[in-house]
Structure formats: structure tokens, C-alpha cells
């Protein structure tokens, strides 16, 4: 699944112009990609998601959208913008139990593990908890779809156990995209790191 990274919007400049978005969309559709993971850094870091970008793309792709919702109710705007799946990440969540709140609005809720040489997050049930405790807590609150960076897929898989949750690996750094032998439901790869032709095998 291609990953589109959004970062750097200003009051007068969009991250991608309409022409750039059309070009990216055409290229990915021409290679038979049907799903797109949008990682909105402006939403995560500044609580200013670029909803118009998702609205522009939702007619061409099934959108998985990570925009940093802090509370469960924050997912409503992301769903209205056109997201089929909204990911709540450990970095932004105010509390792990907000997953359950979000599930009351839509079943399309996933859980993203933010990792940088350790678990990232300050929320209740995340800060000070082990990776295994956080994954199992997210599943207990209703998460059935989990995204983790490629370097911790094995650990997350162990924590998921036989719960039935789906695990997806994210490859957003150069070199990560070559890790295609991971036993996951899908590999999410920065669209700029994808091979120029066809889909990665």
C-alpha cells in the first residue's frame, strides 16, 4: 500500500498542488493500487490535519488516514473527509481507552504504534507501559487493525498472539521498503520509495 506523507502546509501553500495530486493519483492508479495510507504530519504535530487532500483523493482510493486524533470524537472529521480507516497513534492519544470511544462513531478504527528506539506516547495506558501491554490494551479496547514500523513487527506479532487482529508493517525510511518478506497483511511504503513500475512483490 502506498504511503503519502503530508507535511509543511502554510496559510498560503498546500502540501501538494492539485496538479501534483492528480499526477500522483494517476501514477498509482495506473499501477493498480486501490488503497492509499495518508500520514498527515501536520495533523499529528500541529493538530491541523489536511482534510482537503483526503477529500481530493477519496474518489480514487480507499483511504487509510493517520492525522493524530487525540480523543475518540476527533475521528468524526477524518471520516467525513473520506477516510475508510482512521488510525489512532500512540504519539497523540490522550488515553488508550479513546480507541473504544472512537469505535462508537465508526468501526473503521485502526491503531498505530509510534516508535523511535522506543515506544512514543504520553497518554494514559501508553506512557510507562511495555509494547506488549500497549498492543494488548489497544486490542482490548477494540482495535482489530494494527500498523507498526518494520523494525518491531516481530515483537508486535508476539503481542497480538491469536487475537485475530490484522498487522500491517510501515516502511517509511529508505531501505525499509526492501523488507518485503515480513509476514503481515500488507506493507505500507512511502510512495517515493516504491519501484517505478508495478507493485512491490
Overview of this structure, please?
The protein has 201 residues and is of the alpha/beta class. The protein has a single domain, classed as Alpha-Beta Barrel (TIM Barrel), CATH 3.20.20. Helices cover 28% and strands 21% of the residues. The chain has seven helices and eight strands. The protein has an eight-stranded parallel β-barrel. Helix 6 (131-140) links the parallel strand 5 (109-112) and strand 6. It is globular and about 45 Å long. The N and C termini lie close together (11 Å).
Strand content: 15-25%
Major sheet details: 8 strands, parallel, barrel
Main structural class? alpha/beta
CATH T-level topology? TIM Barrel
Rounded radius of gyration (Å): 16 Å
User: Judging by the overall fold, what is the CATH architecture?
Assistant: Alpha-Beta Barrel
How confident is the prediction overall: mean pLDDT? 90
The beta-strand count equals 8
User: How many domains comprise the coordinates?
Assistant: 1
Summarize the structure.
With about 200 residues, the protein is an alpha/beta fold. The protein has helices spanning about 20-30, 40-45, 50-55, 75-80, 100-105, 130-140, 155-160, and strands spanning about 1-5, 35-40, 60-65, 85-90, 110, 145-150, 165-170, 185-190. It has a single domain (about 1-195), classed as Aldolase class I (TIM Barrel), CATH 3.20.20.
SSE order and pairing:
Blueprint: E1 2-6, H1 18-30, E2 35-40, H2 41-46, H3 51-57, E3 62-66, H4 75-80, E4 83-89, H5 98-103, E5 109-112, H6 131-140, E6 145-149, H7 153-160, E7 166-171, E8 186-190
Parallel strand pairs: 1-2, 1-8, 2-3, 3-4, 4-5, 5-6, 6-7, 7-8
Helix pairs in contact: 6-7
Amino acid at each position: 500500500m502506498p504511503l503519502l506523507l503530508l507535511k509543511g502546509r502554510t496559510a498560503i501553500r498546500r502540501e501538494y498542488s492539485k496538479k501534483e495530486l492528480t499526477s500522483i493519483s494517476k501514477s498509482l492508479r495506473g499501477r493498480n493500487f486501490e488503497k492509499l495510507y495518508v500520514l498527515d504530519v501536520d495533523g499529528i504535530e500541529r493538530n491541523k490535519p489536511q482534510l482537503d487532500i483526503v477529500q481530493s483523493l477519496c474518489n480514487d482510493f480507499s483511504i487509510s488516514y493517520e492525522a493524530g486524533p487525540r480523543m475518540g470524537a476527533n475521528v468524526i472529521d477524518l471520516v467525513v473527509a473520506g477516510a475508510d480507516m482512521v488510525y489512532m497513534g500512540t504519539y497523540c492519544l490522550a488515553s488508550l481507552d479513546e480507541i473504544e470511544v472512537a469505535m462508537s462513531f465508526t468501526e473503521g478504527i485502526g491503531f498505530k504504534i509510534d516508535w523511535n528506539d522506543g515506544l512514543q506516547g504520553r497518554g494514559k495506558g501508553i506512557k510507562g507501559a511495555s509494547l506488549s501491554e500497549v498492543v494488548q490494551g489497544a486490542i482490548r479496547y477494540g482495535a482489530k487493525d494494527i500498523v507498526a514500523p518494520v523494525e518491531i513487527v516481530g515483537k508486535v506479532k508476539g503481542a497480538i498472539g491469536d487475537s485475530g487482529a490484522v498487522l500491517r508493517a510501515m516502511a517509511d525510511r529508505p531501505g525499509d521498503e526492501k523488507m518485503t518478506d515480513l509476514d503481515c497483511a500488507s506493507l505500507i511504503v512511502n510512495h517515493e520509495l516504491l519501484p517505478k513500475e508495478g507493485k512491490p512483490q
